[in-house]
Amino acid sequence: MKKRYSENQWLPLWIDKWLFGSTRIELTPEERSVWIDLLALAAKDDGHIRANVNCPYPIEQLAGMLIIPVEVLQRTIKKCLDPKIDKLEMLPNGTLRIKNWEVYKLSERHKRRFLENADIMSENADIMSENADAKNNNNNKNNNNNKIKIREDINTIALNDVSTSCSGPTKQEGKEGKGNKINFNFEVRSWENITDNDLEIWEKAYPAVDITQELSKMADWLLSNPDRKKKNYRRFITNWLNRTQERGGNRRKRGGGSGTEDIKKKFLEKFSNKLEG
Which residues have CB under 8 Å from 144's CB, separation 6+? Predict the structure, then answer.
């Protein structure tokens, strides 16, 4: 069955080829606009122009879809099928296909580069979000400081008593919160404080993702980019897993057994020795 939607969301338009190539000589201005429409439509079906795998578009339907006169569409297709121009081919079932489609579509190398740039943009967005959180925390601290100053003006002695009684527990609570936070230890090159419950939640939320493998990839990325340490590693992990899930995941199909138990076992095998060492 023909794909309704394609993973290709763009086509490369090489400037020199478009301005000075043979297409500008072979086709009239209105035919060139139809050719661009045909390329965009073909990108949705790996170079094919068809209603379904074995069914061509009726010419009137295709013209209506592209909002162009039937005569202009017929003339453009006829020219592009001409062996002298050789931009289209008609398959035995009557459907059309772009000749040399590999030349027109975006190469895998460019796709990887765009995806890497998208990852960098996502990471930058995370950093901006973390900075905004830090700014909000600073504002809250400033507000608290203002309240303390007001209290000092009212009763200095009472303020000192409150500060003395509250300082110990507050610091202890802060230490406990930090101790339970997911962290990446660069010295032992391993994750810390990832619980079984975390693995179970990620397993259910990202079923197409091999959690242990992706945690290893994250660890390798962090070790390769030591200057990009995170303030919130839980957010870093979930953003990474979400992007992997959206791209189709990386988990291979396998037989029975508990997926969560497999993940726990693999996680312990990969990281427990590092933590003990």
Answer: none
Q: Decide if domain 15-104 falls under CATH 3.40.50.970.
A: no
Measured between alpha carbons, how far is residue 61 from residues 57, 79, 90 in Å?
A: 6, 20, 18
Using only C-alpha atoms, what is the Rg of the chain?
30
Three-state DSSP at 69 gives coil
> pTM for this one?
0.41
What lies within 8 Å, CB to CB, of 22 at 6+ separation is: none
pLDDT, tens digit, 9 for 90 and up, residues 109-132? 655 666 676 667 777 777 777 777
Residue pLDDT, tens place only, 230-250: 999 999 999 999 999 998 888
Token pair recorded at residue 196: 């079984």
Domain boundaries, given as residue ranges, for the chain: 15-104, 107-167, 181-277
Task: List all residues 6 or more positions away from 212 whose beta carbon is below 8 Å from its beta carbon.
Answer: 263, 266, 267, 270
- The end-to-end CA distance of the chain, in Å, is 54
Q: Where are the alpha helices (DSSP H) in the chain?
A: 15-20, 23-26, 29-42, 59-66, 70-81, 101-104, 108-154, 156-179, 196-205, 211-224, 233-246, 259-276
Dump pLDDT digits (tens) for 127-169: 777 777 777 777 777 766 766 666 665 555 444 444 444 444 4
β 183-185/190-192 pair status: antiparallel
Q: Which residue has the higher pLDDT, 274 or 192?
A: 192
